[in-house]
Amino acid sequence: MSKSVFKTTFAAALIATATSFGALVADLPGSAAKAAMPGDGVTVRPMSVGRPDHQIIYEALFIGLRKLGYTVGEMQIGTYPTIHLSLGQGDADFTAVHWDGLHLAYYNKSGGDDALVRLGPMYTNAGQGYYIDKASADKFKITNIAQMDDPAIRKVFDTDGDGKANLTGCNPGWGCERVIEHQLDAYKMRDKINHDKGQYFALMADTITRYKEGKPIFYYTWAPNWIGAVLRPGQDVAQLNVPFTALPGERSVDTKQADGSNPGFVANNNFVLCNKEFAEKNPVAAKFFSLFRFPLGELSAAMLRMNDEGKEPAKLIEIASDWVKANQAKVDGWVAEAAKAAK
To answer: What is the mean pLDDT of residues 205-220?
Structure first.
């Protein structure tokens, strides 16, 4: 399905199921369902990249916002740079996936602290890195991406016969794509590694198929993600080190770990990112965003369920509402605490 078709279909399905949200929220137990409605008359405008796994987070947030009386507007879709610019310019109110670290350049170019505010963090210490199948790692003693300099090593991961290793990488416009492209030059791997870019999860479906067929694989991934439950680090796959820290110029953070390993990426904290004016005018929504927590392990489990059971809008709503019900006391507490911020 093309991205444009997905967006149209997804938006239409969300609209079609919108009337079910009231019933979903009303059915949720707890005293917060009876909380005051300080958000009455305010429509909140979310923005996302349109990924189903992210939509689980949004649906959970929407439940809390509606409990506070807010109306949730139609989801706007864009790339990460576009989302940050839209928030900075006031064309959207919030996004639920802003990685402090990976998205720093987008943040700074969109007005930074003068136009935006990070609320949270929703989860912390989200790792990223390069991985290969463990069988190849053990057989050829591969521990570092720099070993792709060896023609015999990169031939193992050459899927198109051009003499370069094929890395399943990131969508154009994602923060990880920017880092990988920078590192290919920094490590002098531009003529050694093909960065296969496109629709990440479609590319990873092919990568997983290759793994199941007993073929070598080489890919980038991150957490939270269902990929880690299918290709298990330490069992199915091994993470590679990089020769030295090399990040795009806006950060000087060392990616080397205390144990001496270096994944090449900074562990990120994920925040709800808001337009600053919206946050100031809507302190209740801002407080709720600042309190909301969706731990890495629980989010990865929800994403795995999505991968197993389906990505239809109704299924994503079901997964999110089940998570809320399982964490009802906490969610009710956040809603009640946020309501106190009403002016």
So the answer is: 98
